[in-house]
């Protein structure tokens, strides 16, 4: 029996599966062909399912030009990891209902205030097709929980100054 094929990297997530080459006893080539087709279909189903799941789970993040510093990949990863739990908790405390998280597009930029670095985050669930999100922040008035903004302190790993828009 041949050694199994190891884990395959798909997007940023690992999908593990094994394909084993097995010698079949002399049977018709039609049966062998059917077995191989089933094995290939199973692998493709797993791989396609992984892509579909990750595509739905990720938000669009747009770096806005300018700012006084560039957040590192580590800072961005920490920020993204903690953002949803923080915002959902704060919204609950304010008796506010958020949109589905995957609907949000996030703008961000590194800045400084009183000598402390922070990342300004602006969330929009309905950006206009004509907006150049990488050029300017789009601060919308009203619009409810479709729009919110806040700051992230990478040194303290804390969020602050969350403002969820009101309804007109």
Task: Outline the structure in words.
This protein has 168 residues and is of the alpha+beta class. It folds into 2 domains: 50 residues, no CATH class; 105 residues, no CATH class. The chain contains 2 helices and 7 strands, in the order E-E-H-E-H-E-E-E-E. The chain has a 5-stranded mixed sheet, with helices on one face. Strands 1-2 form a two-stranded antiparallel ribbon. The radius of gyration is 23 Å and the shape is globular.
Break the fold down into its secondary structure elements and pairings.
Elements: E1 8-10, E2 13-15, H1 29-57, E3 60-63, H2 73-93, E4 105-113, E5 116-124, E6 147-153, E7 158-164
Parallel strand pairs: 3-4
Antiparallel strand pairs: 1-2, 4-5, 5-6, 6-7
Q: Which structural traits does this protein have?
A:
5-stranded mixed β-sheet, alpha+beta, two-stranded antiparallel sheet, globular, 2 helices, single chain, disordered N terminus, 168 residues
